Amino acid sequence: MPTPVSPSDLFRHGLRLLLDKDIDAWVGLWADDGLMEFPFAPDGRPRRLEGREAVAAYMRPYPDHIDLHTFPELRIHETTDARTVVVEMRGVGRLVRTGAPFDMTYIAVVTVEGGRFTSYRDYWNPLALLEPGAEFAGSAR
Asked: Which pLDDT tens digit goes with each residue over 3-15?
């Protein structure tokens, strides 16, 4: 499948790759200088990942911590900037280490240029880190 170029299509494609646990392909959707930010990250957690390689290093262990099953309630809102969307979604699955349910609501502001993610601000709930088995940022609500 050719890489989608609209922000909505690229985002949906990226979710499918995350469900397939194809982190390398998901990272391949990023611009070399893409920026991922976590505005609500607590102390000791990354707030800013600069560049595709930093995003890759952060995301590689994701499937070892979270087994995603679905993204119900996905809503993608277009903005006045055709490159940017605001996404509301839930990620549902289980925590790998404990088998506990995973259910997190996210809001993300995503910008796409040239068919690649250039900016991704992920507003996840830092209280999720209090759950056993939730060492990976953004794991249970």
From this structure: 557 999 999 999 9
